[in-house]
């Protein structure tokens, strides 16, 4: 894990570290945008660019975010996109992001709104991060069927979408598009079952993609760090998703020290 995590070289600058774009949030769910940015800022990219209707909420909490009024295609260069947390019904933004020739992480509403063929024809990597309910909807089966056969479900989704799939839950599974071994992460804690913790994970994984990790490594490393950060944050007591995000640096140090 330590070898996977990006570290800035002596001559690095913010652009060389990678810029991650976050297309998330809506009038109904501005918090999902804030939480995705909170994860992205701790994930190794040199800058976080935000597009969407929650720019004021994002800036109020994280003034270092580069907020754009334009849509994804005109927002400026990024090395990876995260699209979907709290996005509501903005299918046009999801379609625009999927056209970008950089890695894309699809989460939450982005999973529902993405056209299957638009994902399948992408040549840059796609990382999808469903929970069991979302995975079931994508496969057209009941949630219990996914929960009873999680390994088969993650493999099937990866094959059908030709994408890397990270299936969230008490353990997290990461399957690449080409078959082969599925990675299992068990660093988490049930205290992570709190609203918005998935949004933190998607920002973190997107940031690792922007920093240059492949989709399977970005998903695995994000799940590992997120689980550890959840443990540090909770330490036996209930916490909010923002608490998890704030402990990511400690989880990172735990891996690299
Ligand atoms: N702070 C925020 O702004 C947050 C926004 N979020 C956004 O909220 C939207 C919906 O996300 P979800 O993951 O909830 O979507 P889901 O589609 O998983 O949740 C809705 C479904 O969960 C089930 N459900 C809902 N409440 C339940 C309850 N109390 N008991 C049992 N089952 C229940 C129902 O079957 C419902 O159809 C997404 O856009 C997501 O990104 C979430 O990420 C949470 C945090
Ligand atoms: N029982 C559990 N044990 C460990 N991790 C969990 C458990 N339940 C949920 N998680 C983790 O918490 C996060 C929840 O994400 P998600 O379901 O997308 O919630 P939200 O949409 O509210 O952000 C995921 O990373 C998931 O793996």
TrEMBL record:
Record protein name field: ADP-dependent (S)-NAD(P)H-hydrate dehydratase
Sites where the protein binds AMP: 168-172, 198
Keyword annotations from UniProtKB, A to Z: ATP-binding, Lyase, NAD, NADP, Nucleotide-binding
Domain of life: Bacteria
Top EC class of this enzyme: lyase
Function, as annotated: Catalyzes the dehydration of the S-form of NAD(P)HX at the expense of ADP, which is converted to AMP. Together with NAD(P)HX epimerase, which catalyzes the epimerization of the S- and R-forms, the enzyme allows the repair of both epimers of NAD(P)HX, a damaged form of NAD(P)H that is a result of enzymatic or heat-dependent hydration.
Lineage of the organism: Bacteria, Bacillati, Actinomycetota, Actinomycetes, Kitasatosporales
Subunit-level organization: Homotetramer.
Family (UniProt): Belongs to the NnrD/CARKD family.
Residue ranges of the TM segments: none
């Amino acid at each position: 894990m330590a070898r996977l995590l990006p570290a800035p070289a002596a001559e690095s600058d913010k652009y060389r570290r990678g810029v991650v774009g976050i297309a998330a949030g809506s009038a109904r769910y501005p918090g999902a945008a804030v939480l995705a940015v909170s994860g992205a800022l701790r994930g190794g990219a040199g800058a976080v660019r935000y597009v969407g209707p929650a720019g004021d909420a994002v800036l109020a909490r994280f003034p270092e975010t580069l907020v754009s009024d334009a849509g994804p295609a005109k927002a400026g260069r990024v090395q990876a996109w995260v699209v979907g947390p709290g996005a509501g019904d903005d299918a046009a933004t999801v379609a625009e992001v999927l056209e970008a020739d950089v890695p894309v992480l699809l989460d939450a509403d982005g999973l529902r709104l993405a056209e299957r063929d638009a994902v399948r024809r992408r040549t840059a990597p796609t990382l999808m991060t469903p929970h069991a309910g979302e995975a079931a909807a994508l496969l057209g089966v009941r949630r219990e069927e996914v929960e009873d056969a999680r390994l088969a479900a993650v493999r099937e989704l990866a094959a059908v979408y030709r994408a890397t799939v990270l299936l969230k839950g008490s353990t997290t599974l990461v399957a690449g598009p080409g078959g082969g071994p599925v990675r299992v992460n068990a660093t988490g804690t049930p205290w992570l079952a709190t609203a918005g913790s998935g949004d933190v994970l998607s920002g973190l994984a997107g940031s690792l993609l922007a920093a240059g990790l492949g989709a399977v490594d970005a998903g695995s490393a994000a799940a590992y760090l997120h689980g550890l950060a959840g443990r540090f944050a909770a330490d036996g007591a209930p916490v909010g998703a923002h608490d998890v995000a704030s402990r990511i640096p400690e989880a990172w140090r735990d891996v690299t020290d």
